[in-house]
Amino acid sequence: MSLDNHSALIEQLKPLLMEPDFQEIFEQLTADESNSTRFLLKMELNRISSQCTRIIDLRDKTELPCEEVVIANQRHFLDEPAKESLINALPLYRNKYTLGVYEQVVKAHKLRRLKLRNIEPEELISEENPYLVPGVVLGSYFNRCEERMNYSIRIAVNQPGVPEVNGVTLDLSVGGARIKLPLKHHLDQDKPIKLKLLELSEEFFVDDLQHGVDYQIVDIQNKDGNAILRLKRLGGGETLDKVISKVIRSFKFRYKVDVNDVIVTATGLGYERHYLPLLTHLPLYISVKDDIPHIAYELLGRGNQPIQHYFQDENEVSQLPNFLNSRRLTQILKNTLDVDHCLLFSFTHHAQGKLHFYSASLAELKATKNLHLFLGFASTKASWRVFKVVAQTIDHSKNYKTSTLPGDDARYSALTEQQLAQFSHTLQLIDLTNEDARKDYQGWFNKADVNGLKIFAQAKVKKHSIKKVSMPFSERRHEARFAFKTLVTIQQGDKKATGVTHDISSRGLQLILEESVDFTEPAQVMLSFPRLQAASGKANLAHLPYQLIRSRMNGQTLHLSALIGHTPHDGVEFLNKLIAHNKQKLEQLSDNEGQLKELADGLKNLFMRQLPGVPYFIEKTVKSAQMAYIGIGTTTDEISHLFAQDSDQVLQYNLRPLLDNNVLKQQIIDPIKAMKPSHDMDFFEVFIQLVRQARGSVQLKCVLKSELGGKDNQVKFIQQSKKVGRFMALRVYRGATDKPDMSYIRRELEYIHIHANHRAKHLEEQLWKVIGSGELLDITAEVEIRYPSLVMISQPK
C-alpha cells in the first residue's frame, strides 16, 4: 500500500508534528481516511520526525564551494542551495535535525544536479535491487464500522454570508463525506456548513435532506483546479442514518466501495496463515491472582510441538509450570528487557523410571555463582536446552477480534471476551538450542562437584494446570484429541516398526516410534493394537488400514488417519467407544467441533500484536524464487529498522547486506525447495558487525557463522565488532509452506471480489505463489553467553 496520493497531507502535517496537540489535529485531518492509511501515515510521520545522526557532506558531490554548518554538535558541509534547503526544512521540525530534514536536503540537492545535466527525475532509472523487499503489516486488523462509497451526486453548500456553492460528492459514508467544489468557494473552514444532497432530497422526503445537513470542514486541499473538502457530519438523526445506509446498500453494486482496509487486513491474515503453521515458538498466556502470575493457557501449533513434548514427564504431565514458576514469571514481567531474566537453561535426568527437570535463569546462575557448573555440565546432556522468553503486556483497549468487514460484530461471544480479558501478558517461549554450539557451552565446565546443581531441581508437577488450545487451521482435525498411550505396530510392505501413541481421536492418532523408519508418505499403512486387543471383545484390532499423512522429528513422529471404506472400520469404532467411556479420565488436547475456535482465534490475535522476530515470505517466480515480503508488526522492531536505513519509502527494506553473496539462494531458496510443508523449520546463524559511518549511516557486515570457522575466529569477530561498533547475531529460520489457507479469509475475498474483483484475484495469486516462510530472530545475548572468554571480559571475577 502506497502513500503517494497522500503527499499533500503529509506536507500539511509536517509543521504540526512537534505541536503538543498534534494527536488531536492528526485525528481531525485524517478523519475521512481509512484506518490502514492512517496507520501508514503515522508510521511515516514517526519516521521523518525521528532524530538523525547522518552527516551531509557534499564536498565531492557538488560543483559549488561548500561551507561547514554545525547542528547539534554535528558538522555538515553544504553548498549554498543545500544550506538554503536546510534552513527551510529545520523550522518544520522545531529546528531539530531529523530524518525528514536530512531527506529534504539530500533530495533537493539531487534534483538540482539532475536539472544541471538536463535529466528529468523520471528518466533516472536506478539500478534494480533484488534485495529491496516490501513489508506486509501483520497483527493489525483494521476495522471500519461503516462502509464508505465512492459515489458522485450533485450537492449545494450553504454558509451564512456566503453565496450558495454547487459541487459533487467524491465519496459518502454515514458519518462523513468528501466533496469537490470550485477553487473560489469563499467558505470559512472554521465554521459549519449546510450540505444539501440534491439527488437524495428528490428521492427521499426527510426534513434533514430538504433543508440541508450540518457538516464540519475537516480539511481543504486544492487539486487539479478544484477544492477537495473532507467533511464530518454534525447534524441529522437516526432517520438520516437509515437513508444514507439504504443508499449505500442499494448503490454499492453500481459504485465503487472503499475496500482498502479489507484488502490490507485480508493480506495480513493470508500471509500469517503461511507463517503460523511453521511457528516454532510456544505462545503462553499469563493470569495474575493475588498478585501472583501463572500460566493459564498455551496455544498449540504444528511447529511448536517439540517444545510441548520436551516438558512432558514420564506420566505425560507438563512440567512447564515449574520451569516458568511464579517467581521467575514475576522477574520476567518486571524486567521484560533484561536478558538475564529472559534467558533460561534446562536439562533432564532419568532416575528409577522417573524424569527430573533441572532449570535456571541466567540471573539465577550469576547470583549463585553457578554459571560455569550449570552451563558446562548441562550442555553435555542430550536433553540440554536454551530458551528465550519474550513478554508483552496486553492492551485490553484494543479489540480482540479480527472484525474486518463493515457491519461485522466487533466482539466475540461474551464468554470468549471474558476469557481473553483475564490475561495480563502474553509470553513467547523460544527454543534457542543449537547443537553446533554445544561444545562452546561445554567450555564453561570447571570440573566442580555436580551436587551443586541440586538447588536447580524443579519440584514435580503432579497434575495438569495449563489449559491447551490449538491454533485453528483448515487442515486440523475436526474432532477432539486426547492424550493416550498404548503400544502400536505399524507395517508398510516389508517395513515394520513399533511405537507408542501420543494422542488419539476416533479417526486419527499421533504415533511416536522407538526408532525412525523411512516409510513412504503420504501412503497407506497397516496398524495393530496388541494391548487393546484383549479389551476389544469381538473387534479385530490387527492389520487396520490407516493413511500416513506426514512424519516429523526425522521420521519418529507419525500422523495417521483411518482409511474408512464401505464397511465399518474396527479401529474407529473401538477408539470412539474408548473415548466416550473414559472422557472424564482422558486429558483433552484440542477443542471438540470448534467449541474453542473463537478463543483460539483471539489468543492468536493477542500474540500476533507483537512479533518476537521478523517473518519473511518466499514466492516462486518464472525463473526461480525471490523474497516477496517481510512481515512488520504494529510496534517498531530493531531488525526491520536496521534494514530500513537505505530506503526512503514507507514499508520498504533493503536486505542486501544480509542476502547478498548468494546467501538468499544457497541458504534460503534452495533449502526451502528441497523441503516439504510437513518438515519442521531449520535455521542458520548470521553474525553482524554494525559500524557507524562518519556520515551517520550504519554499515552492516553480515557473515555466516559457518564461514567464520572455529570458536576462536567467532570470538575474534565479536570482539572486533564491539571495538569498532556493535555486535549482533541473527538466527534465520526457513521452512516450506503448504497451499494457502483461503478458507480463513473466504468472507473477505468474497467482499473484495464484489467491489474490486481484480484486487481479489491479485491477492489470491500472491498467496498461491508463496512456497516458503521463515523468520529473522535476534539471538545476540544467547550467542555471547556461549563463550566464557567474552563473559569473563565483561564480568571479571
TrEMBL record:
Residues forming coiled coils: 572-606
Short name of one Pfam family: PilZ
Domain of life: Bacteria
Keywords assigned: Coiled coil
Domain PilZ: 143-227, 475-589
Protein name listed in UniProt: PilZ domain-containing protein
Organism field: Shewanella metallivivens
